[in-house]
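Project outcomes to date are best conveyed with an example. Our students and postdoctoral researchers have been running inverse folding experiments weekly, and each run begins with a structure described purely in tokens. The record below, which covers 674 residues, was selected by the lab manager from last quarter's runs and is presented without edits.
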């Protein structure tokens, strides 16, 4: 059938718009955000992206493979100049239309997909557009696959049926315009659909074929995607050992891809037409769940190797979260301290999975596992409630969630915490659990807080932590603070007392106060003198968006990113490292786990061995008392950082008007606790 160039151009523009809408309509929020940031011309040949920074161990081969497999996707450009213009125009529409979203059962969205399928049929035989039609068929099929997982009843069944049909059309298409890559991607995605439908044998056959083809083509993204599908199919077929082995390889590949992407490429690239930006945590979570199944079925006694593997996966996961949050592939430069090498510290990993809450503890190389008597949804609900109610300092409403969380997360290991050989409880939390102070968890039976059992510390990742006792000889302290009301913030009446008491204890302390606390002066002091402790008493805030996090100085706001860069020069002073960074009036955005992650990473980015910080706005007078007691304890022989904070918190709590945990609990010791 003959069609004019103008007709072809109209079809191309219309089809590209329809498929972009279809692909974006059912994406997750993260997928939509990535679509908005990606190249406006995803339908033309993809040029290599400018590297974002050093890989710090990322695989050059992975990067080269990613570029090779994506550069040739649309290697045959249309012969019509008008068609090229229309393809570029359709691509530029992508950013605008991707912002639109529809409910999964919206009839308008279904009409878009039907129209797209009709348009594919019209241009499938055109020389200029046949390859584009094959690619767009994959787009629509994948969108339908997503729809089948988010819909119910007939709508889900129809979406799955149509998706399967489009994938089969791609696989069986004899035309040379359907590339081998299109075919094995279609096979792999079809395997995932068959797996959802319980057709395990067919899913297994297709997944093996897709993974084999992807391996031959060195398509690392496809190997990651279909490795997970194959692992699930193997498990469904009853071969758990083979499934675990496949998941282990896939998880390692995913971590390599994640670090490579973080270190060298922008957040979106030419993989998007095939699979979007994968969530590299999915495979780790699946592997964790399967390993814990093995532990529960075989018993901890014979599963120490599995528990050690779980620990290693959790450490990789925690480190990856910090790297991704800060966009810094170089955050992990060398291995920190292993659990096996730590004496006297009971390490607690709360693990929040979809089907369970697990507790992993490690003590001097021996691991224990407990399944908490609570659902993940309940943990999250109690966590949010506790965070909110701790701000109400005139009521005891916080006790309900504090006791529920104690029963779930602490009571199963309470006896181990109280053992004489345990000197401190070190918690490596995840998600929303970073937003609450574990010190405030309350035992309804003994009427004690968790802080009464042992000193506590928060560790974002043991891999990034080097617990070392503070070097007390030759200490030098820089103290900066604001008392005056500035920049819309209220006056801090007790910061002068806080800093003066610090100078009385340590006469050599260098003080920058009020007018003297200027950003350039602080930077000059940090860069020119090897301070052991930097203490900042001023308003501050940690947001999920690190660019909005700041400390208040006399002459403006000091971004925490700049503060970290100032202090990071100290990490090269091996003989005189920065032992402690104290932020005594900082706060995190309430209930924001991303902001809490940023707070947990303050010490890491600054190169400090540890940080003392607060989760919410603290009472000025209570803070002065706590800080004075903390430093008095810190420099007693044999006292640890966590032990000094514990004594200070209990001292404030024993003051009647400050007995509510809202006054003393928000102070956290982050990273090194010794």
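After processing, the design step wrote out the following sequence:
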């Amino acid at each position: 059938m003959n069609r004019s160039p103008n007709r072809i151009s109209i079809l191309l523009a219309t089809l590209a718009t329809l498929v972009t809408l279809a692909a974006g309509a059912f994406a997750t929020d993260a997928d939509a955000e990535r679509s908005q940031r990606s190249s406006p011309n995803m339908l033309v040949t993809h040029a290599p992206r400018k590297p974002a920074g050093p890989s710090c161990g990322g695989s050059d081969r992975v990067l080269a493979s990613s570029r090779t497999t994506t550069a040739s996707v649309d290697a045959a450009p249309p012969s019509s100049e008008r068609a090229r213009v229309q393809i570029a125009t359709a691509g530029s529409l992508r950013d605008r239309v991707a912002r639109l979203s529809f409910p999964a059962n919206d009839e308008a969205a279904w009409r878009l997909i039907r129209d797209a399928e009709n348009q594919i049929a019209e241009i499938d035989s055109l020389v200029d557009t046949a390859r584009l039609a094959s690619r767009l068929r994959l787009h629509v099929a994948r969108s339908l696959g997503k729809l089948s997982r988010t819909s119910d009843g007939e709508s889900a069944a129809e979406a799955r049926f149509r998706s399967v049909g489009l994938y089969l059309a791609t696989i069986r298409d004899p035309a040379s315009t359907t590339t081998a890559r299109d075919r094995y991607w279609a096979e792999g995605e079809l395997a995932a659909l068959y797996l959802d439908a319980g057709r395990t044998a067919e899913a297994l056959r297709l997944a093996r074929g897709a993974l084999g083809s992807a391996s031959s083509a060195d398509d690392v993204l496809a190997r990651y995607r279909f490795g997970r599908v194959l692992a699930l199919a193997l498990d469904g077929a009853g071969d758990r050992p083979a499934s675990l082995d496949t998941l282990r390889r896939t998880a390692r590949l995913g971590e390599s891809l994640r670090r490579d992407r973080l270190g060298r490429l922008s957040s979106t690239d030419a993989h998007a037409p095939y699979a979007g930006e994968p969530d590299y945590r999915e495979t780790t979570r699946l592997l964790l769940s399967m390993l814990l199944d093995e532990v529960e079925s075989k018993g901890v006694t014979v599963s120490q190797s599995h528990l050690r593997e779980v620990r290693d996966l959790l450490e990789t996961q925690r480190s990856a979260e910090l790297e991704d949050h800060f966009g810094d592939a170089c955050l992990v430069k060398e291995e920190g301290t292993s659990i096996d090498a730590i004496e006297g510290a009971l390490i607690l990993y709360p693990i929040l999975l979809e089907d369970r809450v697990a507790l992993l503890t490690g003590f001097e190389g021996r691991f224990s596992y407990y399944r908490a008597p609570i659902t993940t949804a309940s943990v999250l609900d109690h966590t949010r409630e506790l965070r909110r109610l701790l701000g109400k300092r005139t009521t005891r409403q916080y006790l309900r969630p504090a006791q529920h969380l104690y029963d779930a997360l602490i009571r199963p290991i309470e006896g181990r915490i109280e053992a004489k050989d345990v000197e401190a409880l070190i918690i490596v939390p995840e998600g929303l659990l970073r937003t609450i102070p574990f010190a405030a968890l309350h035992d309804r039976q003994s009427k004690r807080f968790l802080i009464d059992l042992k000193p506590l510390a928060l560790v974002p990742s043991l891999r990034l932590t080097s617990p070392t006792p503070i070097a007390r000889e030759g200490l030098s302290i820089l103290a900066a603070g604001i008392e005056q009301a500035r920049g819309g913030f209220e006056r801090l009446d007790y910061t002068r007392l806080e800093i003066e008491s610090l100078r009385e204890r340590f006469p050599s302390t260098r003080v920058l106060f009020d007018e003297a606390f200027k950003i350039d002066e602080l930077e000059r002091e940090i860069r020119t003198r090897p301070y052991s402790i930097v203490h900042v008493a001023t308003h501050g805030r940690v947001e999920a968006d690190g660019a909005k996090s700041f400390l208040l100085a006399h002459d403006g706001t000091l971004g925490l990113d700049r503060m970290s860069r100032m202090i990071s020069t100290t990490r090269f002073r091996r003989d005189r490292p920065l032992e402690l960074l104290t932020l005594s009036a900082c706060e995190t955005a309430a209930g924001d786990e991303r902001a809490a992650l940023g707070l947990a990473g303050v010490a890491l980015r600054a190169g400090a061995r540890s940080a003392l910080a607060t989760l919410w706005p603290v009472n000025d007078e209570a803070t002065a008392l706590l800080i004075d007691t903390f430093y008095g304890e810190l420099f007693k022989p044999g006292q640890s950082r966590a032990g000094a904070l514990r004594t200070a918190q209990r001292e404030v709590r024993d003051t009647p008007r400050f007995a509510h945990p809202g006054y003393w609990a928000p102070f956290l010791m982050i990273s090194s606790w010794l």
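Residues 1-55, 57-76, 85-105, 265-275 have pLDDT under 50 and may be disordered. Residues 41 and 642 are 54 Å apart (CA to CA). The training component of this project remains on track.
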